[in-house]
Amino acid sequence: MIDWEEFLDPYIQTVGELKIKLRGIRKQFRKQGRHSPIEFVTGRVKSVESIQEKMSRRAVALEDIEEGIEDIAGLRVMVQFVDDIDEVLALIRQRKDMRVLRERDYVNHKKASGYRSYHVIVEYAVDTIDGPKTVLAEIQIRTLAMNFWATIEHSLNYKYQGDFPDDLRERLEKTAEIALELDEEMRKIRDEIKEAQLLFDPVHKRVSDGVGNSDDTDEFYR
Ligand code: 0O2
Ligand code: 0O2
Fold first, then answer.
1. How far away, in angstroms, is 140 Cα from ligand 2 center?
2. What is the pTM of this model?
3. Rounded distance between C-alpha atoms, residue 25 and residue 57, angstroms
4. Residue 202: its pLDDT value, please?
5. Ligand nearest to the CA of 179
6. Cβ atoms 212, 154 nearer than 8 A
């Protein structure tokens, strides 16, 4: 038997800490008036039901769960441009508070479904009242277009359990191509967009106007 609540505690802590740290990177870029490679960050701890489903699908024994299920703690970093993914990767690889164990590049090697995203498995230590505890976390890095597609495909997948009718499968393939095209087109006008965004960024503007403001008060523009 496993006490799931106790087992998941360090993962909950990990997701909370990594969300704050990754969002902190965005804040630092904006305060310096630079384009942030991070647009927004979300995170979740996998549900017990979903962990159990994956354990049985992958034939992972209870004693191997910590190494066998790598995405119990999951973070998602959304970026505007494909090139931002490399920048986020460089920032993650250089950090002293986490260690990259594995990388899966579904950006240059999309999955058969059409899914694109860059996955990094990191080792992260949380401090607990019983001492440090090291857990694995999966960080998915993707553009807004990749995220749009994946979110929609994920809901449809939930409904059809991967067994899509042919016409829907074809449409999903087509929309994956369109998302790829969108990323390509955005790349071409990237410099123009970045310049425009920095012009109206309220945090940067106020700081440079000498008024100053805490990023936290600027909810709308996060
Ligand atoms: P707000 O005010 O909605 O922006 P938390 O850790 O409590 O901050 P929570 O509830 O755990 O966040 O949610 P999760 O799933 O980690 O992250 C969801 C956050 O992503 C929400 O922010 C959403 O606003 C933000 N988000 C989702 N889609 C987009 C998007 O397209 N663009 C931007 N910029 N943000 C998005 P918060 O923190 O709940 O606050
Ligand atoms: P969640 O919490 O619902 O997102 P596996 O889970 O066995 O397929 P593996 O090798 O463990 O895959 O890890 P992989 O493929 O690196 O990452 C799995 C996660 O990537 C999934 O988590 C999804 O979040 C995302 N993902 C992978 N392939 C697809 C896809 O075709 N479509 C969409 N929408 N997302 C995908 P989970 O397990 O679904 O959990």
1. 10
2. 0.88
3. 36
4. 76
5. 2
6. no
Sequence spans of domains, the chain: 4-216
Residue of 70, 138, 173, 192 with catalytic role: 138
Q: What is the dihedral of CA 120, 123, 125, 128, to 10 degrees?
A: 90
What angle separates helix 144-160 from helix 166-188, to the nearest 10 degrees? 170
Residue whose token pair is 């990594």: 18
Q: Ligand 1 centroid to 163 CA: how many Å?
A: 31
Tokens 């996955």 belong to which residue?
A: 119
Confidence of residue 201 (pLDDT cuts 50, 70, 90): confident
In whole numbers, what is the pLDDT of the chain averaged over residues? 92
Contact between 98 and 22 (Cβ < 8 Å): no
φ, ψ of residue 151 in degrees (nearest 5): -65, -45
Domain 4-216 sits in CATH 3.40.50.1010: no
Q: In whole angstroms, what is the distance from residue 139 CA to residue 141 CA? A: 6
Which pLDDT belongs to residue 86? 98
pLDDT digits (tens, 9 = 90+) for 90-127: 999 999 999 999 999 999 999 999 999 999 999 999 99
